[in-house]
Amino acid sequence: MTTNPAAEPTAVNPVRPQSALEGAPPITPNLVRREEIPGAKQVGRNTIETLLFRGLSTPIAFALVILQSRFLEPDGRGAFVLAVLSVTILSRLLGQLGIAVTSHLGRSRVELRGLILRALSIAVVVGAAGVAVLAAWGYATDSLGAGLATLAALALAPNVVWQTISGVLLGLARVRLWNYIQLLPPVLTVVGMLVLVVAFDGGVRGAILAWVIANVLTAAFALAATRALWLPLTIPRIADQHGRTLLRLSLVLGAVQVVNLISYRIELFILDRYRGLSEVGVYSIAMQAAEAMWLIPAAVATAVTAPVVHETEARAAALIARGAVRGLAYTAGAAVAVGLAGPFVIPLVFGEAFAGAATPLAVLLPGVVAYGPVTVLVVYLSVRCRRPRLSLAVSVLAMLVTTVAAVFLIPRFGGTGAALASTIGYVAGAGLAWGLFLRLRRGYGPSVVSQVANVSTPPPP
Question: What's the predicted TM-score (pTM) here?
Fold first, then answer.
């Protein structure tokens, strides 16, 4: 099988992690058999398995919201959400170190263990610095305070550590262990809140402590479960070229996550400015119902990450194209069901006061469907091609278009205008993502369309 030398390892065989641990290069790296590509034959199974795990985590997250609402009161829940959100923003900015390792794997002469140790060390150092930043921010924020902010900040380094391990596992196609790690934080947080908040009446401080402990235990589990990848423990040179590359890739990938977070929520602030909190509450129901369907393409993206990293250029692009088209089709099918059920289910579950969410939901669905494949496409742009700035451009465009449209539409149409603005932004971002993918893909053998139609088409010599 002909390979792309730029995409193949020079001193590490990413297909066999144990070779990286031994530091022994493969004798014939260009003769790796296709069946040895991590996850190449389990894309469908890994997608379904990830959806099942997400199905388990959804009711757990719902139970967490109920506990907060019942035992923390509105002010306490607000403080908890604000504290967690402050850590989450920094975590999203720093938590892509594992994905950076996955992207760097095979392009570096450093063995896998060395890259992982660099990433974990950066996570600990930067996470510790983030505690001071969050404490200072809490001190300047009357609604939270330095004490609660500092307590929440203790979860930053553990959170970044287990996310780093998760990114590495995706690159090795160890999706089942990845799913276990993703499930642990909400489960442990619920257990911790039952003990610290319900049993011992710890209030908001107990809730935040439960969340911190959940992240610490998840990080401990992730490190223990992957100890063969990073032991024996040595002090890596985190300031060398490879460490700087990992940090740079992680920050750009993290910026994509932060911009996405803002992009998905920017219309809420504009809606609040013009129509008030009541309409924000109604619209948020439509928004959460619609965006929940992104679990489907996200599961596809999780399943294809490892084979896309290790495959030849032509096969990687074809796999991404098939995954994106499947994600689009599956999300569209779910959207039809959600759109038909929305007018009946929303008032039944949430009450008649939220019945008005059905119309914004219907307007949101086309944009959510269109933007769904972007989750798969950015695996190619950011991880395979190591061009995270292109993914950032997609997110920035979607955010800017949504903001401009929202300013014009929300004052006149309220929540429906917010939904229409979001749909316009989603379509614009999706169009750019597809355009960038096709442009990068050009010149690598058969067209994407032909490879989607004929999955057995061999790559060109």
Answer: 0.64
- Tell me how far apart the alpha carbons of residues 321 and 434 are, in angstroms, rounded to a whole number: 9
Hey, what are 23's tokens? 């530091």
Place of tokens 């994509």: 256
Q: In which region does residue 377 sit, left (phi positive, over 0), alpha (psi from -120 to 50) or beta (all else)?
A: alpha
∠ at Cα 203 (161, 285), nearest 5°?
A: 75
Q: pLDDT tens across 337-354, in order?
A: 999 998 998 888 767 877
Q: Which is nearest to 445 in space by CA: 461, 421, 427?
A: 461
For 2-66, the DSSP string reads: ---GGGS-SS--TT-HHHHHHTPPPS-GGG--GGGSTTTT-HHHHHHHHHHHHHHHHHHHHHHHH
CA distance 249 to 420: 33
The residue type at 407: V
**Six-digit token pair at 232?**
């024996």
Q: Which of 445, 446, 404 is nearest to 422 (CA)?
A: 404
CA distance 305 to 326: 15
Delimit the domains of the chain by residue range.
43-238, 267-461
DSSP-based three-state secondary structure for 372: coil
* Cβ 110 vs Cβ 99: under 8 Å: no
Q: How far apart are CA 418 and CA 433, in angstroms?
A: 23
Q: Closest Cα partner for 170 from 65, 59, 306, 264?
A: 306
Number of residues in the chain: 461
Whether the bond between 232 and the residue before it is cis, its omega within 30 degrees of 0, is yes
Angle at alpha carbon of residue 295, lines to 292 and 298, rounded to 5°? 140
Which candidate, 9, 178, 160, places its Cα nearest to that of 87? 160
Structure tokens at 135: 């404490």
With CA atoms as reference, report the closest residue to 403 among 263, 261, 258, 256. 263
**Interhelix angle 241-275/43-94, nearest 10 degrees:** 80
Give me 426's structure tokens. 């989603």
Confidence band (pLDDT; 50, 70, 90) for 41? low
CA gap 418, 267 in Å, rounded: 6
Q: Using CA of residue 159, residue 161, residue 165, residue 167, what is the dihedral sign?
A: positive
In this structure, how many other beta carbons lie within 10 angstroms of the beta carbon of residue 132?
11
Task: Give the tens place of pLDDT for each residue, 53-73.
Answer: 777 777 787 677 667 666 776
Distance CA 330, CA 288 (A): 18
Please tell me the chain's helix, strand, coil percentages from 3-state DSSP, rounded to the nearest 5. Answer: 80, 0, 20
H or E element, residue 259: helix 241-275
Q: Is the dihedral of CA 248, 251, 253, 255 positive or negative?
A: negative
